[in-house]
Write a structure and sequence with these properties.
The complex is a heterodimer of chains A (231) and B (227). Chain A has helices at residues 6-39, 45-57, 60-71, 76-85, 93-117, 121-129, 134-145, 147-163, 166-172, 182-191, 196-228. Chain A is mostly helical and 231 residues long. Classes of the chains: A mainly alpha (231), B alpha/beta (227).
Chain lengths: 231, 227
């Protein structure tokens, strides 16, 4: 029963690729936004905070629809990117990664922001008195100290991206081999007679991948934590 | 020579001081709340004065009239904080080397060895700051500040977080530092006894103003006032 069919493998590989790309691309933005929210006071901060958290509270279908009308081929951003950079999102796996990244973004930002807020800013002051520009102080002191939070955020982001369903299917549909992730494949299988066994296989796969990600993050976080508390 | 003439309002507290450092170790002396730490932070560049001028030898670090404000990281002023502030994610060796790396200075093994020996921290190099005693931590903090080859060293109550035995352990190192390292220092403390061992000149602060400045004899008067 655990012989996965080629179609199932395709869905699994696609899901992992989408989740990895979504997490990797979201990470620098997540760090920047988390830093802004943790450290800076500026006009419109509450608005930015609200917009970042919107995907968490909106129905995923709404987020997916908003992506469709803005990043779709005829959407203003989608048309611009297609014309100038040749980047197309609609009905492509890249669009699935975008939808997953947007949906997972609040989780990423929250985890990283909390760890930025927990850092003793006096250490950054100390770094600048030793000749580090604010940017170098950030990369040599702030970011390494926030690493456990960054890792936790990445795992949350990856897990969310792996399981995202509503926004993805609304934005890029459910095309086998292009946008059909594990979640979408399970959904499809439950809609057809006799699909239960195959659906169950994918359910087990989803559990295994998620557990592996959690264990890996625990391991990374513990190693990062050990670096601060002695050798 | 360091010359300071600054004003800064912090809530209800108003600092207005003018003094010049004389000799190798200038003490900023005064009770807590006299503005010592704020003044040191302004010299370092961590806090911006409202008005005034700070100059080190012939370099102007801050001058409100000329809109000069050299950023902290370009001032080359070493700062030893009360709580050490060692970077917890780096080994002692990496902490010591941090200032040199960030200031873009060439590696100087002789200088490094000399300071490590002076402070007697050679056996700690592979450890993390979390595994150091309070006294060891402060010695490493002093070494870290020295190894960026500062033009001036600020020490803000470097012994305040230590017990008496540890204070006795560190003071001789600081005295050696004064006599051997040839870096001018500004030393903040409210302990006349400590300052008598290390300082060569005294600026006595009270309520954000300079009460008196002069030699170590001011500390005798401080003892009398305390009686």
């Amino acid at each position: 029963m655990f012989d996965l069919t080629p179609d199932e493998w395709t869905a699994i590989r696609l899901s992992i690729r989408i989740a990895v790309v979504a997490t990797a691309v979201a990470l620098p933005f997540g760090i920047a936004v988390a830093w802004l929210l943790a450290r800076k006071d500026f006009w419109g901060k509450s608005l930015l905070d609200g917009i970042v958290h919107l995907p968490l509270v909106l129905p995923p279908v709404v987020t997916g629809y908003l992506l469709l009308i803005s990043f779709g081929r005829r959407g203003p951003i989608g048309a611009f990117l297609d014309e100038h950079f040749g980047i197309v999102f609609s009905f492509r796996w890249t669009g699935a990664a975008l939808a997953c990244g947007v949906m997972a973004f609040p989780l990423l930002v929250r985890a990283i922001r909390l760890s930025f807020e927990a850092i003793d800013r006096r250490l950054e002051d100390a770094a600048t008195t030793l000749g580090a520009s604010p940017l170098r102080a950030f990369f040599t002191v702030t970011l390494p100290l926030a690493l456990p939070g960054v890792i936790a955020g990445m795992v949350l982001c990856f897990a969310k991206a792996l399981g995202e369903f509503g926004a993805t299917i609304t934005f890029v549909s459910n095309i086998p081999g292009e946008t059909q992730t594990i979640s979408a494949a399970i959904y499809t299988l439950t809609q057809v007679p006799g699909g239960d066994t195959a659906a169950f296989r994918l359910v087990v796969v989803a559990i295994v991948i998620s557990l592996a990600a959690l264990i890996a993050s625990e391991w990374f976080a513990r190693r990062a934590g050990m670096r601060y508390h002695g050798d | 020579m360091l010359s300071v003439d600054i004003e800064k309002r912090l809530g209800d507290f108003h600092i207005k001081v003018a003094f010049e450092s004389k000799g190798s170790v200038t003490a900023l002396f005064g009770s807590s709340g006299s503005g010592k730490t704020s003044i040191v932070n302004m010299i370092a560049g961590l806090v911006k004065p409202d008005r005034g001028r700070i100059a080190l030898d012939d370099t102007v670090l801050f001058e409100s009239a000329a809109r000069v404000n050299v950023p902290v990281y370009r001032r080359r002023i070493g700062y030893v904080f009360q709580e050490g502030r060692l970077f917890p994610h780096m080994s002692v060796a990496a902490n010591l080397d941090y200032g040199r790396r960030m200031s873009g200075l060439a590696r100087d093994d002789g200088e490094q060895r000399r300071i490590v020996e002076l402070l007697d921290i050679g056996h700690l190099l592979d450890r993390r700051p979390g595994k150091l005693s309070g006294g060891e931590r402060q010695r490493v903090a002093v070494g870290r500040a020295l190894l960026m080859r500062p033009r001036l060293l600020l020490l803000d109550e470097p012994l305040a977080s230590l017990d008496i035995a540890r204070k006795r352990e560190i003071l001789p190192y600081l005295v050696r530092l004064r006599d051997e390292a040839k870096v001018p220092m500004v030393y903040v403390s409210h302990h006349p006894g400590e300052l008598r061992r290390i300082a060569t000149a005294v600026v006595w602060l009270d309520g954000g103003r300079v009460m008196k400045s002069g030699g170590l004899e001011l500390l005798d008067q401080a003892d009398l006032d305390a009686l």
